[in-house]
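Progress note, sequence design subtask.
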């Protein structure tokens, strides 16, 4: 898949997941979040100050788990996860 085709498929997968009305498990949602952020070069691992900021902690952990992958690899994984869970 060319870079342009990958970008188009990534955006289409994003649209599909954004408009999906079904239920997606929370662990998959975190993976989708992290893969999207890394794939779109928007990833940053936030520091959190209190134990009340659990959502940020989980998001940062998810990003950290996928940080070893290149953005294009994350785009491909994101597309596969969306196809699997957003039917």
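Output:
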């Amino acid at each position: 898949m060319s870079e342009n085709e990958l970008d188009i498929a990534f955006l289409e997968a994003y649209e599909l997941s954004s408009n999906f009305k079904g239920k997606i498990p929370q662990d998959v949602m975190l993976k989708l979040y992290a893969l999207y952020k890394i794939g779109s070069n928007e990833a940053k691992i936030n520091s959190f100050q209190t134990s009340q900021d659990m959502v940020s902690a989980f998001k940062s952990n998810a990003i950290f788990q996928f940080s070893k992958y290149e953005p294009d690899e994350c785009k491909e994984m994101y597309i596969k996860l969306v196809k699997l869970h957003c039917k």
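Helices lie at 3-19, 26-39, 54-66, 71-85. Work on this subtask will continue into the next period as scheduled.
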